[in-house]
Specification:
Structural class: alpha+beta
Strand content: 15-25%
Distance between the termini: 85 Å
Helix content: 25-40%
Amino acid sequence: MRIANHRWKNVLLALLVTFTACSSPDQPTSAPVQDPSTGEVYTPRRVVVSDSLIRGRLLDRNDSVLVDTRLQYLLKLPRRALDTLALGELLGWDSTTVRRRIQEALPYKDAYGVAVQLRLTKKEAERIRRDSSATVPQLTLTERYQRTYTTPAGAPVLGYRSAEAQAFLRQARRYRRGRFYRLRNGGVEAYYNGLLTGHHGYLHPLLDKKGQPHGTWAKDTVFQQGQDLHLTIDAKLQAYAEKLLGNRRGYLVALDPRTGEILAYVSAPVYPAATITAPDQAAARAELLEHEDLPLLNRPAMLANPPGSVFKLVNAAIALQMNAITPGSAFRCDQTLVSCVHHHKPATSLTKGLKYSCNPYFYQVMQSLIDCVPDSLAQDTVGARHANLAQWRRYARSFGLDSVLGVDMPREAPGFLPTPAYYDKARRTRGWTYRSIYSLSIGQGEINLTGLQMANMAAIIANRGWYYPPHLVRGIGENGPLHRFTRKRHTLIDSAHFAALVPGMVAVMQRGGTADASSLADVGITVAGKTGTVENDEGDDHAAFVGFAPADNPKIAVAVYLENAGFGATAAAPCAVMVMEKHLRGYIAPKRKRWEKRIQHRAKQGY
């Protein structure tokens, strides 16, 4: 009899588990079921544990609250003509502020007869409650809890809740005609939505006619409150970096190479973090959507570009690993091979080749790699080139290139590295030669990297060959980051070959190097860096820079990319070293204050 009852209960549980999804709290999940052996009728129920869910906060690495759920006061204005002077007196605003706030809340310029809502402070809301009926009638004040941003910085990192961004999503579909998906970036709010929201607890009792429980028909679930997320971002450093890029087009990514924690993440042009969800920022959202520079595009994660000369670091490391060169290899600056914009002394070693960023030098470095014909393929030079390019790509992919790094942010692009088959198809022959692919040697042509990949590349060199995947959350509640961010990854390059790159990167920042004007030697910081100027057929060249500091004990790695900004040495490098100095010292030396002010002014003007 016991065996029969046990089997019957197993069958009952299997049947009832299918009824959970659509059931309402404290309601039967299906019709009562009768026990065929005893005639007893059991009613399965699903009971919600009575606890209220509170969405977790976002805090920076120093535990400053960046995003929280707080009470907001919204003032709904009537559709008819409004006495703006009286409204201004009521709220304590001048007439200019009233008109500006109303204009910002309109979905399009000069909209008429559209009801809008304005965000108020608690003090302003109290004035409305006290005096609005007599001064300005037909005003409606409502209160609701909504995500509140305590800082304007970090918009692409913080992101937004989809439920609070419906007005933006509707605008995006209309303005971008279905292509708005490129502009959607829910950031950390979307990526960790489940952990931030938490979940209710549910009990699953089997009840008899008297309401008495007789076991359970499904496993009970535990109530889980929304978790706080402790970000890797330094809010002050983030705000400072955004001032350096401002309305330019480009990105800056700074991370701690020892942990993979992202310290600053800037996608420019920048915009206030609350713009996407604020009920009174419809006009600002429309401007962002229509802007030709696409400020809503998450550039560091989604935009892959040719990296330019900074990629010479990867090519040099691979060439060393494949024994195509040695640290003492010398090559002549032969401009019949490729032009060299730097006037410099002979590059008699890898260190000097990096210091001067000599294009012919690295043309020949890559040529030594691709055109190397081993004895086993002495009669098949085409096969040798294919094999060497495939091996080059295999080593380059171990840097996390041509694949997503797995950052905790929606929609990361993988970038691109060409394969032998790609060139077979593009050149319409297997017999292509090095001369037709030499642009790879200087980071041009078909190579595409994201900003995250470029910053991670600098971190790999800083660590002499290993890295932790870049990430934005260092702690979930009382726990650490997601497990995958704690697993160290190694490249296929020996650490000795990365060590051979560092003297050249240090020399870049010293007298005679391509970025000697950006040295921090005056404050005792040795920077290792590499400049890049990316050729652009459609306008001015792009400026790039990667580096880390201090060179002997790296604590920060930075990648900067500025579109149409010209030389990496004059445009990108200054931004990178200032972020390094700000992070390592907390302030900028007086010597560079004038320089800093000029950069911030240009950033504000967008050039």
